[in-house]
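ok so for the tutorial part 2 we go from a plain amino acid sequence to predicted structure tokens. step 1 is just haveing the sequence, like this:
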Amino acid sequence: MSISLSSLILLPIWISMAQIQQGGPDEKEKTTALKDLLSRIDLDELMKKDEPPLDFPDTLEGFEYAFNEKGQLRHIKTGEPFVFNYREDLHRWNQKRYEALGEIITKYVYELLEKDCNLKKISIPVDATESEPKSFIFMSEDALTNPQKLMVLIHGSGVVRAGQWARRLIINEDLDSGTQIPFIKRAMDEGYGVIVLNPNENYIEVEKPKIHVQSSSDSSDEPAEKRERKDKVSKETKKRRDFYEKYRNPQREKEMMQLYIRTWGRAETQTEGEAGSMPGARRGTRSRDSRIALWAKGRR
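step 2 — the prediction. this is what the tokens look like for a chain of 300 residues:
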């Protein structure tokens, strides 16, 4: 039976509380103080000290998994299905490992859409500049020219991306169960144009820039000696806080921010009053026909 570091840290406090509860009024005050201390301890953060680094492979081979001829994910050496509880009593670490594998699966499905289904990856918006966030969808060659039949596939909400129905089914069952690939192949065999949308890929994540707050004392009318004293206290406080944060959360993940993909036009945007009462004109959005025309133009 293993004892975690967090249990060892809290054990003396629990023992002290048990001993104090047998005493008088003074001891009850100490009990209250200890309870207050316990309430301030973030057990989730404390348990992070027990877990291994959140460092995971970025390929299926690195995870020692591969898809077999039936489209099932199996361990390369043992032939066993994916095991979620790779390390016991480390649910957060296991979940992060599962999510890392899921990201690899997503890229693998993208490759299958292009290689096995012969779909083209189309960047959107088609008139995006180099610096602005972009997303993408997948289309068959005849998606915009097929005069009779078009199938548009849209996945559900959550972590799934283009070409997927459910990540859980891909990992635990097989590719046919969890991806849109069987539907795409059948549709193309029956003469449909195909568009695979990617609505959950509507933003990109970038690391949040660190904001350096300038000390207000620079513009203060306080005496120089008082400003220096305040600055010294501020620096010491920050040093203690940084030390505590490093101890409390040694595996602190990067703070990320989301940059959303543009969903309205730029050069061809209609201004307010230009289109009268046309729906969307006040929001500066293109009409459906103009968006499709620009899309088709971008594919030529």
